[in-house]
Amino acid sequence: MLKRCIVKKHFGLLLVICFLFQCFTIFSSPTKVEAASSAVSAIFGGGPFVTGGQPVMNQLKASGFNTVIIWSVHPHPNGDLYINDVLVCQNGNYVGDPAWATAWQSLKTGTTSVTRVEISVGAWGCSDFENIQALINANGTGSNTILYRNFLALKNATGADAVNFDDESLYNVNSTVQFGQMCAAMGMKVTLCPYTSSSFWSSVKSQLGSIVDRVYLQCYDGGAGNSPSSWKSIMGMNVIPGLWCLHNGSQGDSASSVKSKLTNWKSSSDGGFIWLYDDLMKLSSPNSTADYANAINSVFSSTPTPTPTPPISNNIALKKSATANQYVTNETPDKAVDGSIAGYGNGNSKWCSDNSDSAKWLKIDLGGSYNISRWVVKHAGIGGESTSYNTKDFKLQKSTDGINWTDVDSVTNNTANITDRTVATFSARYVRLYITAATQTTSNIARIYEFELY
C-alpha cells in the first residue's frame, strides 16, 4: 500500500508534405529522451518532488521515466489542498511556493523523458476520500465549488495530465465516480492505484469508462500477493504493476529484481512503476533513478533505453579517499562519498563538521587526473534534517597537488536539498568542497550527505 503513460504522379508532392511536417515537428516540439517503447515507466515521489527544486526535476528528465506522479495530495474538510503537510491551494488559488510550480512545469519541456505528470490523491491512514465525499455531498462538483476550483488551480500549477486515485479506506463508488467526472471536466484523465477491494475498483472503472486510462497495481506491502493477470481480468485492461525499492530501511526490489518480475508479468502489463523516489535516493548505483527506469523500459522494448546525458551513475568520487579539516565522531569524511544518504535511524551517513572555523573543507583524492563537468552536493534536508541546515555558501575547487587550490564554481544563498551544477570541463586529481556559510542560520555546523563528481 502507498504510505505516509497513392498514385505515382502525387508521390513527389507527398514527399514534400512529409518533409515539411517533419520540420514543423522538429522545431515545435521539446526534445525527448525516451525508450523505444510506449510502455508506461512511472515513479511516485513525495517530499523531494516538492522541496528538491530544479535539480530533482533535471534528474527525472534525464532518467528515462516517462511518467512522474506527485504524491500525495490531501483535501481537507474545508476544501484546502495540501501536498504532504504543506498548504498549496486555497480559495481557488495556488498558494504554494512559486518555485515549486516552475520546477513541476519544467518536467515536460526541453530535453526530457517525461511526457506525463500526475497528482496522486490519498494514502494509507488518510481521510482524503472521506473529505471529498463530504464536500461533494454538501456542494456537488460544479465549476464554482471549492473542490473543483482548488483542483483546477493545482492542475495549472503542476501541469498535471491526470489524477491518481489511491483510496485505501472509504471505497465509496458513487462519490469516487463523481470526483473522477469532475477531474475529467477540467481536462484530466483518472488513474487508479488499487491493492485490495477489487469489486470497488472494478465498479469505478466500469462507471468512469474511458476517463480511466491506467491502473497502477500495487504489488508490494499489502499488495505483495497481487497477480497482474488476475487484476487484468478484474479491471478489463492491462495493469501497470508497482514495486518498491526500499522496505523498512533495507533494499526492497533492486533494479534487476524489477526487471525480472516485470518480465514474468509482461503479458498482463502495460509497463511498471516504482515506489518511491524518496527511498530510491537513499540507494547507490546500480539502483539509481536511471537504473530503475531502464529496468522497466528494457522489458517492453527490443532496444535498450538511451543512456541519459549527463550520466547519472558514473560518480567518480564514489568510495574515493576523502579528508577534511575537521569532523564529528562517527560522521567522518568518507561518509560523504559512500553512495548513501541514509538519515537518522538508518546509519546517518554524512560528513559533519562542528569546529568553530568559519571555513570548512572536504577534499577528495581521485587517485588520478579526471575530466570533470558536473558536481552534486546533497545537503542536510536530503537526510531528513531541517532544511535550515542546508549549506548556504560554498565553492568547488581543483588542485593538481592537493595543496594549491583554484576556484572552479561557487554557490551563494543556496536553500535546496540538492545542488546539481554543470561546469566547463576541467581536469584535476584533487577536488575540494569549500564551505563558507554552513547553514541558513547562524549555526556553523556543516552537514554533507554526499559529494559527487561526474
From TrEMBL:
Keywords: Glycosidase, Hydrolase
Any coiled-coil regions, as ranges: none
InterPro entries named among the record's database cross-references: FA58C, Galactose-bd-like_sf, GH
SUPFAM superfamilies listed in its UniProt record: (Trans)glycosidases, Galactose-binding domain-like
PROSITE patterns: FA58C_3
Keyword Hydrolase in annotation: yes
Domain of life: Bacteria
Domain named F5/8 type C: residues: 305-454
GO molecular function: hydrolase activity, acting on glycosyl bonds
Keyword Cell membrane appears in the UniProt entry: no
Protein name: Lysyl endopeptidase
Species: Lachnoclostridium phytofermentans
